[in-house]
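Quarterly update from the structural biology core.
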Amino acid sequence: MRTMIFGAGTDLGVHIDGASLGPVQLMNDLKAFYQGESMMFEQDKEIIKSRNLSDRRKNEYEVEKFNSNLYKNIVEKIKEEYFPIMIGGDHSAAIASALASAKANVDVGIIWIDAHTDYNTFDTTVTGNIHGLPLAAINGYKNTADLRTYHDGKIIQASKTVIIGARSMDDAEKDNVRYSGVTVFTTQDVKEKGIEAVMDEAFQIAGYKTKGIHISYDLDVIDPEIAPGVSIPEFDGISEEEAMQINEYLVKHMKDILSFDLVEFNPLRDIDRKTEQIALNILAQIIKAVENKKKFEQKTYY
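Predicted structure, tokenized:
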């Protein structure tokens, strides 16, 4: 199967700079072995980015404009039977990639691998960082419609949504998660149950009566002592071994996966290129699995 890599060079969703450089760096690294097609999207260099933590709708227009362009291009390439891999950039870009998959494939589940649940709304966000709202927007939860004005297809149902690795939620965000109907496996759950058991359950939930699953993998799920190159680090994360075990599970179940994100690599915060190397290992495995996808059987319906 053909891959199409989309670089989403944006950090408009967070007050910290640097995530916009992540896709540029990783896509440059990939040239050593990736011979497939790619497209790069970069935020307007003329934008004066707001960092005002009291502004609950910080850079909303700019994020929406960036995502609208990304979304339209991903939808087009999925319809041309490409498998999309979106490299972020901050996690706000996943609104575009996940909803593009939902538009093109109609019935989609989602697995959100992240230290944060990203389930704030404009009413509950503390920082106004839009990268803390994308999953709520993807699920159509409460007042997030302004973040997906370009999308005219189905949203992804909360009942088909699984979060893995969460360990940081704002107080009001906890209520959003509780009432939404999404399934959450915390970092502690991952360590107690093991990767295999958590991923099995996640695929059963996200894959139940869907055409497949969108995977959104945020590098901050990994402990920052191991992967420091992220904008908003959260300690007590999963290990590199556990991160790669998750990826190995995804590779084995590629027949069930429709689209993939890897986000939040911030090279300005990396140390000795540790996070960069982990990101490249993840991408290399996924790219190879996608290229071999035609060899797999059709999707397993759970």
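The two ends are 23 Å apart (CA to CA).
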